[in-house]
Amino acid sequence: MASTLPIPDINVIGPSFIQRDSQNAEHPPPTDFNHPYTPYPIQTAFMQTLYTVLDRTVAVPPNTTANSTNTTAPSATFSSTAATLIPSKPSPSPSPPPLFNLTTLPTVHPINRATEPSRSVTSKTTTTSKDKDKGPSSSSSSSSSSSSSVPKGHAQIALFESPTGTGKSLSLICGSLTWLRNHKRLQFESEIEKIQQQMEASGEPGWMVESAIKRKREELAQRYEEMERTLERIRQREREMEKEGEEGQARGGKRRKLDRGKGDEEEGGKKKESGGSRGLTASDEDKEFLIEDWRDEGVGLDENDPMGQLSKETRDLLEKVGMGTAGGKKGGDDGPVAEEGIKIFYTSRTHSQLTQFIQELRRPEFPASVPTLNPQEEEAKGIVKQIPLSSRQKLCINPTVNKLGTLAAINERCQSLQQSKTPKEQRCPYLPNAANLKATHEFRDTALATLPDIEDLYQTGQKLQICPYYASRSAIPGAEVITLPYPLLLQKSAREALGIKLEDNIVIIDEAHNIMDAVSNVHAAEIKYTDLKRAKLSLGMYHQRFHQKLTGENRVMVAQLQRVVEALGVYIKSRLDKAAKGLKEDQEGTVLEPNLLLKAGGADQINLYKLIRYVQESKLAFKIERYISYCEEESRDTDDEEAEKEIKMREGRPPVLHTLCSFLMALTNLSSEGKIFYEKIPPPRGEVQDMKLSYMLLSPTHAFSSIAESARAVILAGGTMSPFEDYKAHLFPDVPPEKMTTLSCGHVIPPENLCVWTLGSIAPNPKVDTGIGEDCFDFTFAKRSNPNMINRLGLVLLNLCSVVPDGVVAFFPSYGYLEEVIGVWKTHEQAMGPRTIWERLEDKKALFIDSKTESSEQTLQKYSDVIHSEVRPLSPSGSRVKGAMLLSVIGGKMSEGINFSDRLGRCVIVVGMPYPNPRSPEWIARREYLEANFIERYTASQQTATITAPLPAPIIPPPSNTTHHSTNPHSSRNKDKDKPPNVRKLAARASHLFYENATLRAVNQSIGRAIRHQNDYAAIILIDNRFEKEHVRAKLPGWIREGWEETQRQAKEDGKALKGLQGMMGRVNMFFRGKK
Questions:
Q1: Strands, E, within 534-605: which ranges?
Q2: pLDDT at 638
Q3: What is the mean pLDDT of the chain?
Q4: 3-state secondary structure 67-134
Q5: β-pairing, 674-681 with 690-697?
Q6: How far is CA 190 from CA 141, 185, 462, in A?
Q7: How far apart are the first and last CA of the chain?
Q8: Whole-number pLDDT of residue 981
Q9: Are 234 and 456 within 8 A, CB to CB?
Q10: pLDDT score at 272
């Protein structure tokens, strides 16, 4: 029988309770989460919910399989919306083919994910003969580890929405680390209890049992205390050094920029003196540019080897110095700090956001993981051990390597300096080895003792003269929290390259409102016709110079690469020829038959997997790139500035063959997961025409499944996560409801600090729409260009600028539409009087425009200077303005990561809804995928007697600008005409919901720029008649919906109209009058 744990009455969406398994009822969430200050009730609820989610990961009995019937209710559900329209069920149909017919490939085969049993549905246990031979002792061993090991498919998923200013980062830190420390203490007691039970079962006398238990407690406690003392000594030394000024300013002050290019000027000067010519002999050229013998060993990557993606040199280096992997168990004896256990992987979008998180991580103090031996003593505090991970581009301290700029170039040069054939005097002096093992351990201990960010790691590496990129791995076994940016976590290959294993660990993804886009972006690839021409020329020059010296295997592989480049070039050239005729469908579209891409010259019969592996392992891309650069340096005039610029530009971009390999890798994905598009693009540097091929991931489900199926718990958190449905349907489609927890927190501001109004028309009761509407605001694509409506919008902004003090930020659907609106406002209209709307706006506020071409930092600085200026600036007409207005774009540079707190954002205006172009090939392909996937899952649910199809969602009429007509004969709309009409309608509705949810997420992100702390206040104005529809408002953040309801209640009490411009101005005027 599940018990319930009450939560304080707080501002959340849905019932305020947490249901818990009966097994864990004796361990309810604590009330003290070691928060640095007294938390708000919503923060307490956030931390209790997070603690409960993590605690449920240890509630699975050791012998429970995913097939077992689980009747337990969700651990914490704060959302009444269903996760998805269709029950989760793997499709029994065969997997769709890859984009190319790869039946001839002998080595690596794509995983048939559609027919592979879902790990979240079934679990198979295999007992080996070794297990049988272990006897009863093996079972006791497994039971002891069951509290920390989570079987596949038993991970908990949680979605948290907590507005900016509500302490989300601290809530994540305090909730997760309090659970982790408590879990370790429980493990400690469990280990002691197990020893006691074993000794009592063997008939040992009581005094011996008591003595053995005491020794074991002292042993474990001393080991832990020794580690803590080591870290505390280092931390104390760091504090003293900071005080003396040896490490720069004290932590928290402004940090000077690191001089990462030290030595570059000297080296660059030497190159210039020599005129750019190295004067290599033929034998020198062979030694530097000729690729070594390469043999296909026919061995693919081992999925279970976390170091499988690393080069042989890197693997040898890490094994030589005994460095473990993140989550792995390998490694030498690294001293008292070596410790494995559950880890928290925290990721966010940028390094600056990670740095802010680490600053918050320094604030709270947590009890030690091991209880004190004497209960009378005060509980000791344990240092939080955190290590940030990043790429070589951020951490390389070798000036000859980090000056290369691009990540690909830095990676290649680093690996080449590790090769055994490299002369000893030319190898990287900073690489960890047996001689500098002491420095490696000192780096590790310093990192674990000081809660460093990336800049701290870089400085520590410089000080100790040890590579931070590799030395940081020695700190992974002892770390509790590992921070890393999105790309390093979301890409499986990146995780493997860093040695990260998510199994049995916790994953926290912050700023997760754009996680689906982030997954798609890291798996996207593109290549241009100009890239292919450059690749063809480079391969030709290299082959002409070295073909007689290439060994048999190398000669074959280089020839195959030339055929692939030629085939892709032929396809794009044929598209360009058609595009020259001016037909719209030839300018952009979807590649309906991907096999045609490599049809020329029989390139479609080439083993792409083997070819990609060859380019990566042989270092061919950099050999060719360096050879071409060498040839150009030899032939150019030393005074040719244009040639000098071209060479420098090439140094700043990755080798073209790397771009090609990324695109070819995308081609090996299953055809159901992504599509290839062609698009004509502006010609570069005077060339006639150019076109690009791009690969887009249609669904993040499969790409994200390696995270969802591996981790102990996956936590998605953000300030504007609503609506939740898409995360459940497209990231976790096979996660049962009892494993899913959602929480939407209210804001910490009092109700009187927020005014929310939806404006659908000028009049409270608009007249019947006669095409554009008498006074309606209809910003659908077909109607938004009407100049009368745009002028009415200008009048609304004029009224708002008259009563709103300080800063106003207005967001528009796109940069193009913003330019169109400004153009209309600057045009004289007889009905508007002698002055334009733009001139009248300039008399109210200083106007600033977010532009694609201008720096957002400069625009923001000017905007801020005007608002905070003690002297009000003059308008063009000579009057004094009151504050400023910034015109920006939803999804643009100002809509994310910018803080419009206090006076900078007293009013946020959202104009329209930024629906993507419904006729673009990308969105047509995505909609068709969503509809086909819906029909497939719906059909599977109907064919399974144990699964009942859910009730259809309420009918939502799609807006007029969302219809599209597919010309693809294989599209779901044409292929599924024989399906029952209601299924096709449900599928169309499901794709429209995804379309609408993506739009509302972007709107919610723009709204979140205002109200950044408890004492902040602002008005939120949503201008479009669609915002007045209930189903649209239901997808706004909970605190915005409640703010709208409160504003309506107050307007009703004041006797004001509940709609229209007059009602809005009355309510907004009263709102700001009360703030004076």
A1: 588-590
A2: 57
A3: 75
A4: CCCCCCCCCCECCCCCCCCCCCCCCCCCCCCECCCCCCCCCCCCCCCCCCCCCCCCCCCCCCHHHHHH
A5: antiparallel
A6: 12, 8, 43
A7: 55
A8: 57
A9: no
A10: 37
